[in-house]
Amino acid sequence: MSERNRLGQFVAGNPGGPGSPYSAALARNKAALLAAVDEDDLRKILRSMIDAAIAGDVQAAKLVLDRVCGREAPPQGAGVAVAIQQTIGSSGGRGAALAATLIERLREERQRRAAGMVLDVQEPDSQK
Question: CA spacing 20 to 30 A to 3: which of 9, 23, 44, 66?
């Protein structure tokens, strides 16, 4: 009996592969961690992360805020894509300059979005 149908898809009842060789080890490590950390330990860990964030530890603040508020969504819309396309289209093989310009345009776009402004999209200069 074939394990795939005429479209190349696995048929029902296919046992699949062996899975990830690291899954069992990961499961054991996770179980050991859960057994070692009780609710009181977890509260102490969280309190120390919050205290570190309040004291100015940027990584701790990022971790706490990511967990509490959720991660920041990636930029949406055409503004960033247009900035990237314009920068790459006008690069002419200048890798470092391309990267610096791209970073600057992304920063400008982020500032415009924060200020509630829309990116002013212009065609790249054809002379470059």
Answer: 23
Distant-in-sequence, close-in-space partners of 92: CB < 8 Å, separation ≥ 6? 128
Rounded alpha-carbon distances, angstroms, from residue 9 to 1, 17, 20, 34, 60: 14, 14, 21, 38, 45
d(CA 42, CA 39): 5
| pLDDT at 85 (0 to 100) | 56
Q: How many angstroms separate the CA atoms of 98 and 53, rounded?
A: 35
Domain ranges of the chain: 23-69, 78-114
119-123-124-125 Cα dihedral, nearest 10 degrees: -130
pLDDT at 112: 76
Cβ–Cβ under 8 Å, residues 98 and 88: yes
Q: Which pair of structure tokens corresponds to residue 126?
A: 């054809």
Give the predicted TM-score (pTM) of the model. 0.41
Phi, then psi, of 78 in degrees rounded to 5: -85, -15
Dump pLDDT digits (tens) for 50-94.
999 999 988 888 888 888 888 766 555 556 555 555 555 555 555
